[in-house]
Design brief:
The protein has 874 residues and is an alpha+beta fold. It is built from 20 helices and 35 strands.
Length: 874
Amino acid sequence: MNWRRRDFIRLSAQSAGTLSLLPAESVLGGSSVESGSSQQSTVRPSRTFNGTYQGEYLNQIAFPMGGMGAGMFCLEGAGALSKFSFRHSPDLATDRRVFAAVVIKGQKEQARILEGLVPRWKLRPQFPGIEGDSFPNVVWGLPRFHHATFKARFPFATVDLRDDKMPLDVTLTGWSPFAPGDVDNASLPVAAVEYRISNRSSSPIDAVFSFHAENLLAQARDFFDSDADANHRPDRIQATSGGFILYGAGAKDRPWDEGQVAIWVDDPAVKVNHSWFRGQNGVNDAMQIAWKEIAAGACYDRAPITDDSAPGASLFLPFVLGAGEARTITVKFVWYVSKSNLSAPNFRIKDGKTSRTLPGPDTYQPWYAGRFAGIDDIKNYWQSQYTSLRAASLKFSNALFDSTLPEEAIEAVATNLSILKSPTVLRQKDGRIWAWEGTGDSAGAGGWGSCTHVWNYAQALPHLFPDMERGLRETEFGPNQGADGFQAHRASLPIHPIGDTEEGHILPAAADGQLGGIIKVYRDWRISGNTDWLRRLWPRIRASLDYCIRTWDPRRLGRIEEPHLNTYDISFWGPDGMAMSLYVGALKAAAQMGNALHESVSDYSTLLNKAVHEMEGPLFNGEYFIQTVMHVGLNAPFPGPDIFGGPGTPDDIALAEKEGPAYQVGSGCLSDGVLGAWLSMVCGLGHVLDRQKVVSHLVAVHRHNMSRDFTDQANALRPEYACGEEAGLLLCSWPKGGRPSLPVIYADEVWCGIEHQVASHLILMGKIDEGLDIVRSCRVRYDGRVRNPFSEIEAGHWYARSLSSYALLQALSGARYDAVEQVLHLQPAVKGDYRCFLSTATGYGTVGVKGGKPFLEVVAGTIPYKRIQYTPTA
């Protein structure tokens, strides 16, 4: 059955939100690269890669802060705090009244929200009480700084604020813990915003800093509720040292939403108002009174209300700055939501019919709920470890950016690390990771179950947190795999065995995901050096590969020919470059792992030779790899009842009988056409196919699929990925003709994750200019004006496939540490001296060449190498 991603989204426990698109401005020019030409992109970035954002480039910035699988909130380009998502689901569209402010005492006109100007796209008409809309965020209308700039150095982001009418300059820095190998501290439900306030005047300034937050976890109140209806609501604002705790009891029909958020400042002079004025309009009236008090320099305590709810709370901190002096005020955040109603899948198929199922008794609980008893425990930990965790995170950040590699590549790597802090990632109470494909706007996310053929592309986690990545392998080859080797390509939530059950088999095996998993086991073994781990997994690896052979290469011809589900949400009929290259890689990986374990793997070696012959012969058209579409002589019947993902209409069947299976590549040039060759290289297997033919394919992809202007490019599906006068890499083209009436789904789209995969592969093969051309086009689209630079989208925000960008480090530096042999391999694509970040299972540091000689500087942990195998660029 040809299950498509949109079906998974529709049927899963959560559904993806709508991705909005704003009109793009022209930033590109020039013509496309001519066939056979060495001409490169005319992409002209209007800002410096990895540099400062300002003006219109601040519009869409939302930088995630929080822990892996712990929830998040974002620091926006102008300094606003937004997208508070603490309940294990995204809440990206709700504007919250959470802000800091400063006022110079006795000068009412010098009171400011500590934010820059509101992006104009937010100032859209809203109509309270009509069709579910609410009042606009009245904080937008409060005085603020006129000039703002933003700069990120993951996991830190900094906003500088300045106003000619205000003698105080403010720099605010948002961050949350993140250091390679320290997975638990990187998973904490914490964040901080540090406000450094400077007096640039020649006179002392007496001022008050304040921080204000509505109760983020309170039950939603309908606009037409009377005041009496709101009395005695169970939500509360509670006291804590230096601040307040926002408590939400959860709605009566959603008790799992119960949670707390603590916000505080470490200073004995802080005053806390635990109860905003409520009035008839709740938080909106509260804002009127709050601003009046801010402007007047208010600074007072008000005790919590014990028998009723309050709209929000504030903290005040008076301070005096001498001429030229500065001080930093740190606002710390901790949240605790110990339960959820999340489970997946929430559907089953029986007798050909799909039906929803209710969540079972077991639902997702976050890792931190097993580590900490409550919010006080986490607060105490964050308080006591703040300095050391900041130092560790800063050490990592400095090492990551201590690089001489091209800035566009470093930007692509660093910005996409934000995915790991987004709601895309969950971490179970037992510590195992489970992930969506991407994040929706509200109450859901797209594509559940750590989808294997999406996470195939992600290369950051195995290097930064290899223990967590190996957990994904243990899920795939453990509870997700049946005794016959069948592997469900999506894991249940909470993770439990599904491979040997009827429920497990409702999800078909995905050839690209299952074959890719075998290659990734090889990578994870070489990164960890743990051969015992490999030995324990080996019987399951062998069963998985044997299943793949029986199912898709039953005649053992060395070609994946039976219909095989893949990441394009359809099945390819007949051998194609993408699946076949993965088949070659999996066979080679299995042969090498088996040999290391002294297992008999001669049958895999025999099949490997056949598969290479098939790939390099019939599937290579002299320029690039193609697909041989087959529907006769296979075990699968054609046309079957599900040739279009459901019962075929007479028109469906007539088209299928005329053209063969729908949604195929055929003679097309697929950007993913040598995916397995890329995955094998970044996983340490080396070349698995003829190098020159792979290079030819990649150059053809760049030549034919790189579009410089989408104004005249037809795309009937999702143009928000690249549109108008933008550049990007199409998924597929048919330069030699033969495009089917219904080609491979998404052929005319641009997926960032595949752009980074192709770009890094080009660079690995020595085509640096072509690879960086693709990277630049992507990062220009994500420059902050139209799209968030820290959230590359596909089926949702913070889409996991974009973690393929991490491979750019390996591609450019040529650095790969093999823990089995304890050898640091260094085969750079760049010439001459350079520096680059390197992370291993036991430590991280900087690797490179200086004065023509290789070097390794360990920054944290250890990297026990016996030698550096250095191969300079010719």
